[in-house]
Write a structure and sequence with these properties.
This protein is mainly α and 217 residues long. It has nine helices and four strands, in the order ααββαβαααααβα. The strands form two sheets. Strands 1-2 form a two-stranded antiparallel ribbon. Strands 3-4 form a two-stranded parallel ribbon. Strand 1 and strand 2 form a beta hairpin. Helix 3 runs antiparallel to helix 4 and helix 4 runs antiparallel to helix 8. The radius of gyration is 20 Å and the shape is globular. The relative contact order is 0.14.
Length: 217
């Protein structure tokens, strides 16, 4: 367990814990509440307060691998595996929180919470990898804000249905899963990070030669 804690600390996973804890608290405390108004904005139709939980969990997932750029870290399969492990662990923790919140809620919100979690997590992971974890929240929060301001719609693929509906249909899950997989792939590849260095081809050959010589000894 000490090794696991040290590894998670090195990846910045601790920054995600408050989001998971906040999502769990909201899911349990407001399990019977519905949101019909946000400030001066009337929400139509009202939605269960527990549908806010996936947003918090997605924000936590987006910062689950928030390491600082390093000038000596090389891009390898190991670094990709560590990044993937951070994000997948965050997703598993989020799904566990969703399961608890959905079981405690008086409304049937489980399928909708899973759909929203996948959709928003894909956005936060991708945005965090491209723009940095300081901006991981932007697309998810903007989309949720637009969904609140959007007029009521019967389309299952409308923003309000994709974010706040407690039910989920096949087309919604396909879109949500696609966004999640794309966001996870971008986050694991981490194409925008300046923290990796690529050795010149000659240096790589020299390194392999050194390893062979060392092994022969």
């Amino acid at each position: 367990m000490t090794t696991v804690r040290a590894a998670l600390s090195a990846t910045g996973f601790g920054a995600a814990v408050p989001y998971f804890a906040g999502g769990l608290v909201i899911g349990l405390v407001f399990r019977q509440e519905y949101i019909s108004r946000i400030g001066p904005i009337a929400v139509q139709p009202p939605f269960a307060a527990t549908m806010v939980v996936p947003l918090l969990l997605a924000l936590g997932t987006g910062v689950a691998h928030g390491t600082w750029p390093s000038a000596v870290l090389r891009r390898t399969l190991r670094t990709a595996a560590v990044r993937a492990g951070s994000y997948l662990l965050a997703s598993l923790v989020s799904l566990a929180v969703v399961a608890v919140a959905a079981a405690a809620s008086d409304a049937t919100v489980g399928p909708g919470m899973v759909r929203s979690l996948l959709l928003l997590s894909g956005l936060t992971m991708g945005a965090g990898a491209i723009s940095g974890i300081a901006f991981a929240w932007c697309p998810a929060v903007v989309i949720c804000s637009v969904a609140v301001l959007s007029p009521p719609s019967t389309s299952p693929l409308s923003l309000s249905s994709m974010i706040f509906s407690g039910e989920a249909v096949g087309s919604q899950l396909v879109v949500a899963c696609s966004v999640y997989v794309a966001g996870l792939a971008v986050a694991v590849i981490d194409v925008a990070s300046r923290g990796y260095v690529r050795l010149p081809r000659r240096s790589r050959r020299a390194e392999r030669s050194t390893r062979r010589v060392g092994g022969s000894r």
